[in-house]
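Bumping with the actual sequence this time:
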Amino acid sequence: MNEQRQRTERLRLAASDSPDAPWRLWGPYLAGRQWGTVREDYSASGDAWTSFPFDHARARAYRWGEDGIAGICDVHGFLNLGLALWNGRDPILKERYFGLTNNEGNHGEDAKEYWWVTDGTPTHSWMKVLYRYPQAEFPYAELRELAASAGRESREPELSDTGALDENRFFDVEIAYAKAGPSDVCVEITATNHGPDPAPLHLLPQLWFRNTWAWGRDERKPSLTASTADGWHRIVTEHGKLGRYTLHVGGSPTLLVTDNETNEVALFGAAANPTEYTKDGIDRHVVGGDATSCQAVPGATTSGTRTTGTRTPATGTKAAAWYSFDAVAPGESVSIRLRLVEGDGHVDAFGPSFQSTVDARRAEADEFHHDLAPDADPVRAAVSRRALAGLMWTKQHYRFRTREWLDGDPAQPAAPGSRRSPAARNSHWRHFDCADVISMPDEWEYPWFAAWDLAFHTVPFAMVDPAFAKEQLLLLCREWLMHPNGQIPAYEWEFGDVNPPVHAWAALQVYRAEENPDRKFLAKIFHKLLLNFSWWVNRKDADGSYLFEGGFLGMDNIGPVNRSEPMLGQWRLEQSDATSWMAAYSLHLMQIALELARHDEAYEDVATKFVEHFLGIAEAFTQFGSDGGGIWDEADGFCYDMVSRRLPDGTVQSHPVRVRSMVGLIPLLASAVLEPWVFEELPSFTRRLDHLMARRPELVQFLTWQDRPDGRRNLLSLLDDRKLRLVLARMLDEGEFLSPHGIRSMSVAHREGMEVHVADQQHRIGYEPGESRTPMFGGNSNWRGPVWFPTNALLVEALRTVDSFHDGQFRVELPTRSEREVTAGQAADELARRLVSLFLPDHDGRRPADGKRVESTDSPLWREHITFSEYFDGDTGEGLGATHQTGWTALVAGLLHP
């Protein structure tokens, strides 16, 4: 191994410990989809999907961001570089990925194309994406019709179902980025015809500015100029903040220039457009043959002839280099090269330095990923590399100033009156002002941050880019995002919704992942999370019962009722999972305080506060609450949500919601070990804990003590030994939660469905292993049976905590009733193995996660590409939901290489 190369990416990373570090200036920050987002919705109805549909995207300027295929942009989201294509048959340029909206898909929104992130490094010195482009006309209308005719019981129709990809009639287009320096990006685009016949292909790499000037808030307008002077084909850009950049264009394509402005005439029937050339000008020129729709600077075609038009340099805010290949032979590849360089350009843009840069960055990526797991077998290493590459590609520039969005822009029509209503979406988050790079759950289906998703992302990020992981956790707690009352914003559809409080857990994971732990980071995040903890206590435990009402908590439709909405008839829903999350939150903040107390004794008192809060929750959880009943159900040996109300005579009416689901397993997560160093180094904390146990002996059940040669140890747990065994017996039962590929989100014992009495109403709920059969939350998410990676990863860790404390002596049956006993650690390993197996070939050479999708065919063109889905079928393991969920599903990398 070349040790100098191995060090190169790590040296870059070490020098890039802040968001504005030079090597972080350019990255995959361009969104996969901007249309259909809340940010671009200026309608009175609040229907984001309808207000800015896909069919508008090619001709309508975005307000807050941009999107494109396999694109990059600067960290501020000003200048964007992406790829457009045309196969000679499509009615429009292929400038962005296509998919169905929530209303169009039979299971909610759904991307209808195939692309894979195949490689990457954390400083984005090397990135590679593969896009699969049909040679037939893209079946936009057919995909909509197929989904419209399919019910919720049917599978989602995919592009492969239309026949558009039959006989491998597609181009595989590989886009590779290699940085020669922080502001010098070499781009190589290679398209290969896998079909049986010659096929035409047009490649149009595009460079454009986000429109910042049309809204009446900043009249400064950047520009780009395309020219062929001095034998160079180049596009020179000028921007007030970025300065000058030059895009060198290899070969002699035609350069097309237009403006990133809305075509008001075509979309809205206006009398005239604000500019002569509009956003769709390049599309209308290439596909429609309209020579007047944009400016053209001719170059040589592949046949050597010249296109018509002037050679005068063309100026605008959006440009493309048009490469036309009349007939790419079967098995043949065509390539183009670009180089984006700060300033006036490179003296020899496509000389030897270009290829040497590509070769060096590819080799550095090989060695960087090898260094993560040097002894891993190639198949497992490939899964990890793809997962981490996809994770690193999830970064997007996210710009959203809620105050301006609610008020509207001076140069645009007045905001509808509904925006001024107290009930307007995010109206209580007027402080929110974000212009940051954030890790997104999914490039296309969830191109906006989600708080609990992001916390899970930081754990695999800590494997490759700990500085970014820490920055992301702190970002959601910064004053321009966190609410002044301490709430962390959930996601842009409703910032005020509630996600599980997992940030303290994630902070501990990230802190412990570094060889030289960053106590400054830990102190920063701790002080911010104190505000958030107070918000939870004040807002979600209003009566001080220690039983919490969190809302849907990210687990969408897991219950028989919508847990985000208030209940009728003065009923309250006291949640097993919300209460358990808060117990775990208390323990995680305790652990952080104890770690900080090793160097600052002021934190000892704070640690005891969280111990006492945990014990208060534990007592209410098992004994009493606001309704006089506990969430722990002794008859079933399980935990349930509970509904209650106070009657006029002062008595309390209550009953449990007897559905065995993930909400009853979350209590397993509330455990923590106090190691001997705590009692040796922190005497004030030790005295307070001893005093509490002497004064409140009924709380001893939640603490398990050990006296060992190396000192005293303690396990704090929401479930004592007996309750823990009862819950694990259900979790590890293949007739309930344990599936071949992880822990289901609902017990398979409910497969036939059941009637549930909840607050004077009857509801029906049942185990659903795959896609959701209910329209709740858009019908695009299902917590009624499938396997989800984030909660499974937490359960693996919980088992390892138990095993660590008991020194391998805590044993359970696995599976339940098998008479096969294993340690809790071995149970954790087995669960991790089942999760990892989703992505590894079985005896037939097929990955379970591929299920019945086209990726499971015998063709190596499909089999070599791994899809990281949002969740997985509880019976078969087939990947479901979003198909580029290398956010939290990238946790598999940590399970592959613990």
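The tokens above came from a reply further down the thread. The two ends are 23 Å apart (CA to CA).
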